[in-house]
Amino acid sequence: MKLIKSVSFFCLLLCVSLSFGQENEYSLGEDSKRHDHVPKGTVTKHVWKSTLINGTIREYYLYVPAQYDPKKPAALMVFQDGHAYVNEEGDFRVPIVFDNLIHKKEMPVTIGLFINPGHRGAEVPEMPFRASNRSVEYDSLDDTYVRFLMDELIPEISKTYNLSNNPQMRAICGLSSGGICAFTAAWERPDYFSKVMSHFGSFTNIRGGHNYEAMIRKTPKKNIKVYLQDGSNDLNNEHGNWWLANQQMASSLEYMDYDYTFVTGTGAHNGKHGGSVLPEGLKWLWSGFESE
Fold first, then answer.
1. 82, 91, 95, 110: which could form a disulfide with 75 (CB 3.0–4.6 Å)?
2. pLDDT tens across 171-224, in order?
3. How much is the mean pLDDT over the chain?
4. Strand 236-237 to 240-241 pairing
């Protein structure tokens, strides 16, 4: 257990590193930048103590677009390691990207739920990647985490906001272990989440994630749309080779004729590449959406 936690934390430290020379080629485009004429959504921060994942506390952020109309059901997109995605000075800058794409009607009016991993303690850790329950929640291949979303946190959000009940209007996203977590949520409950976005996902043997490439081939096709991103300089350690694991995932999805895309590059285990291609990835993920 200590080895898993220490390696997992080491992996995530790389996510925020700016020192990888091979990543100088990646830069943010116009959809990841603020524009004066684009309406700006609001972001609020909250704390949640779970009863389903008993004993855990976590922070989460809620993004509500300027175009939200309580009379119309909004789409929902959930992000694991939410602090990394919601940060407007980070690699992904999701609120800015959402503002731009929603304004251009290249994705639906979408509420963003940015959730940090759970921590067993009186207070959340200063660095969310250090949360003690992160690997248990994210790397485990079961339905505990998706039930936490479905039965606890999302119903709480629904008390205030009108969210669509259509699985085609729900997406889930994450990086590293959060990426496999997003896939697991949709794999377990494709009737709830129909869209998955994974950035350098940990489809390796931290808690059995390497089995997915075989499971996909031997399980009847599920109604999920999958976006994968990874780079050739990703991690290679005792848990496996992330770059090869993501290639195996893509091959299995192709074999089973899933609606998927695999965006590749030379990036390492961080968000430089994923952030640079995030707008195009969201356009692909939400392509063909129909507003309710």
1. 110
2. 999 999 999 999 999 999 999 999 999 999 999 999 999 999 999 999 999 999
3. 93
4. antiparallel
Q: Which pLDDT score, from 0 to 100, does residue 24 have?
A: 72
From residue 242, alpha-carbon distances to 136, 161, 234, 269 in Å are: 19, 37, 6, 9
* 179, 201 contact by CB (below 8 A): yes
> What domains can you pick out in the chain, each with its CATH number?
2-14+34-286 (3.40.50.1820)
Tokens of 32: 């990841």
In order, the DSSP letters of 145-172 are: HHHHIIIIIHHHHHTTS-B---GGGEEE
d(CA 28, CA 39): 20
SS3 206: coil
Give the β-pairing of 42-49 and 195-199. Answer: unpaired
Average pLDDT over residues 259-268: 98
Q: Confidence class of residue 4 from pLDDT cuts 50, 70 and 90?
A: low
Looking at residue 169, its amino acid is M
Tokens of residue 41, six digits: 């959504």
How far is CA 174 from each of CA 68, 114, 195, 255, 281, rounded to the nearest angstrom? Answer: 24, 10, 12, 24, 13
Band the pLDDT of 41: cuts 50, 70, 90.
very high
Which of 206, 271, 275 has the alpha carbon at shortest distance from 28? 275
CA distance 148 to 102: 28
Q: Residue 12: name the closest of 206, 238, 270 by CA.
A: 270
Report how far residue 200's alpha carbon sits from residue 264's, in angstroms, rounded to the nearest whole number.
Answer: 10
Query: Which ranges of the chain would DSSP assign to H, the alpha helix?
Result: 2-15, 82-86, 94-103, 134-139, 144-148, 154-158, 177-188, 212-218, 242-255, 272-276, 278-286
Q: In a 3-state reduction of DSSP, which class is residue 289?
A: coil
